[in-house]
Design a protein that fits this description.
Order of helices and strands: EHEHHEHEHHHHHEHHHHEH
Distance between the termini: 16 Å
Shape: globular
CATH class of the largest domain: Alpha Beta
Helix content: 40-55%
Number of strands: 6
């Protein structure tokens, strides 16, 4: 059995996962969290990405966090292979995997055998990254075929870059409509979607960004922008924390949360759980109450 906990940024997935772990241990389980966030995998971005802190990891072990150099690119396909090994190993050892994160494609990649697109030629990928730096995501968005541009926000540089590289390689990108949700889950999995009202989520985002300001600024300044890969450099707030533009960071997180919620509602069989002002422990108890 696997439990997947998905939700928008700042909704409190880590806290709920820790509270769930406490209840699961009382039921005789041995839970371990497996990260499925595409930014939390990078070393040096733990604060900005909202990865589990050292104290939180002491309460619930978190795997696949901060294990990739930020200069490297990790594709969903490569991540899937690593996540599959991790989840299979945990199950073999009698542990209960809690797959936790907010990157929809990576959640699905961790849980299914997806027909993911093959890697593109390094020269093409480098050329696309240069175009993104020099011309911007909106320019490349305008060059995508209409059936693709309609499915991605003009500011989503990560997805635009990936799809542009695939199109230039004459490979059709994988979208929601191209069968991603048709893949069977690899293990019996309970899918939990954690949600909150727009007002509550905006407040949580504001509190979180304000609280991480100093640590995130130090983290951003410690990273060499020229040495970052495309995915790591697209982390929300990386540049803005350096300049202290917290309002922009909050706005970007609100927009990202809206996209995540839209994504989440498409997951077949997902159980949507409203926070409704409840504490992490109360939400966890509602999730795990006998059905």
């Amino acid at each position: 059995m696997v439990i997947a906990l998905f939700g928008p940024t700042s909704v409190g997935k880590t806290g709920v996962a820790i509270s769930m772990a406490n209840l699961l241990r009382a039921q005789g389980h041995d839970p371990v969290a497996v990260n499925c966030d595409s930014i939390q995998i990078y070393r040096g971005l733990e604060v900005i990405s909202g990865a589990a802190t050292r104290e939180e990891s002491e309460q619930l072990e978190h795997r696949l966090v901060g294990f990739v150099d930020p200069a490297e690119e990790m594709s969903a396909g490569t991540y899937a292979e690593i996540a599959h090994r991790e989840i299979d190993s945990l199950l073999q050892d009698g542990k209960l995997p809690l797959v936790v994160g907010g990157t929809g494609l990576w959640l699905r990649a961790a849980l299914s055998d997806l027909d993911l697109r093959p890697p593109v030629d390094e020269q093409i990928r480098s050329a696309v990254e240069q175009d993104l730096r020099e011309r911007g995501a909106e320019a490349l968005h305008a060059e995508l075929p209409e059936h693709l541009s309609a499915k991605v926000h003009p500011n989503d540089s990560n997805r635009i870059g990936r799809w542009t590289a695939l199109v230039r390689s004459e490979i059709e990108p994988l979208t929601d409509a191209s069968g991603m949700w048709e893949a069977d889950l690899r293990h019996p999995t309970r899918m939990i979607g954690l949600i909150d009202t727009k007002e509550h989520l905006a407040r949580r985002i504001s509190i979180r960004v304000d609280g991480m300001q100093l640590a995130a600024q130090a983290e951003a300044e410690a990273l060499d922008s020229k040495g970052l890969g495309r995915t790591a450099s697209a982390a929300i707030g990386l540049e803005e924390f350096r300049s202290g533009d917290l309002d922009s960071i909050k706005a970007q997180h609100r927009a990202y949360a809206k996209r995540q919620i839209t994504w989440m509602r498409k997951i077949p069989g997902v159980e949507l759980v409203e926070r409704d002002g409840d504490s992490d422990a109360e939400v966890a108890a509602r999730i795990l109450q006998p059905r």
